[in-house]
User: What shape does this take?
Amino acid sequence: MQVSHKFVAESAVFDEDNLVSCAGLVPLMSLAQQTGLSRLLADKIHIATPRIKSGSANPAPKLATLIAGMCGGADCIDDIDVIRLGGMKTLFGGVYAPSTVGTLLREFTFGHARQL
Assistant: This one.
């Protein structure tokens, strides 16, 4: 028996609206919310002179999106989209796009890393 078509990585598409790819993020991000992660991030991160004004707006939820993406297996900015696919949108609100998170990260300096 032979396969009649060639499989390439680009042909795999996650397009089911009801599937959840990272269900383990629910208890993790619930714990983060209960322990005040967003408040802690908001208190610690301050970008006084942003290069792009929108890049420094709302850093806490953008960083929470980054943390959730990293816990979901993201290892680059584009992989942050894993928490926006399928049924993940019904589990989490306020998830930022990878490009928005990348804009925030470009505002970071060494001092910001020390603040964290």
Residues 24-115 form one domain.
